[in-house]
Amino acid sequence: MTFASGWASGINAYATVFILGLLGRFVGTGGVPEGFQRTDVLIIMGILALVEVVADKVPVVDSVWDVPSTVIRPIAGAVIGALIAGAQGDLLTIALAAVGGVTALLSHLSKAGIRLAVNTSPEPVSNVGASVAGDIGVVGVTTLAVLFPIAAAIIAAILLALMIWLALALMSKIRRGWLWLKQRWTAPPPVDTRT
Questions:
Q1: Which domain holds residue 69?
Q2: Residue 135 domain-assigned?
Q3: DSSP tally for the chain: helices H, then strands E
């Protein structure tokens, strides 16, 4: 459950907590931390998940959004892992927090790299398609993590391996996307020549 939730956190940490909370609260599945099931947490995570889903569909905005997410997503994966372990501070808690955090970091970096490569494409269809695929993956893997943790871990491992392979295969486009994003971010403002 920790590994699969870590993978999902690397794609959309807010949606992962939201889905876990909904399943724990309304389906009554075990293993979901009580704090995720609180009404205030569900509302806040639902709103943040929706903001991320929308931001993720807009080229450039998605890559800019990924910058602070490089810190947020791995921390969320680690916290989810620790809470699933019971957060006792023992070796199991530390191990599961590390699994969740490292998995979230790897899936996030792969996702962010792939999206940079996709952003170099002039049409918006591939960007939205990649985003929707991530949304479906988060919902599916997180739901499976609660209901069938072993199957979810296997699927998350396959998806993570595919994402890493794709990111490595697209490395030249990722570099081009990074330069393109950097130029857009640091470009000087246009000079008004009418005066």
A1: 2-186
A2: yes
A3: 7, 0
Which conformational region is residue 89 in: left (phi greater than 0), alpha (psi within -120 to 50 degrees), or beta? left
Read off the tokens for 49: 């998940």
In a domain, residue 194? The reply is no
Query: Is the Cβ–Cβ distance between 9 and 80 less than 8 Å?
Result: yes
Longest dimension (CA), the chain: 68
- Helix, strand, coil abundance in the chain, percent, nearest 5: 85, 0, 15
DSSP-assigned states of every residue in 129-146 = HHHHHHHHHHHHHHHHHH
What digits encode the pLDDT tens for the residues 24-50? 999 977 788 888 999 999 999 999 999
Q: Please, what is the angle between helix 91-119 and helix 171-186, to 10°?
A: 80
The answer for residues whose C-beta is within 8 angstroms of residue 108's C-beta and 6 or more apart is: 9, 10, 11, 66, 69, 70, 73, 74
Helix axes 125-147, 2-22, angle to 10 degrees: 90
Provide the 8-state DSSP code for 37. Answer: G
Note the pLDDT tens digit of each residue in 118-162. 877 777 778 889 999 999 999 999 999 999 999 999 999 999 999
pTM: 0.84
> How many domains, in total, are found in the chain?
1
The C-alpha angle 64, 68, 70, rounded to 5 degrees, equals 105
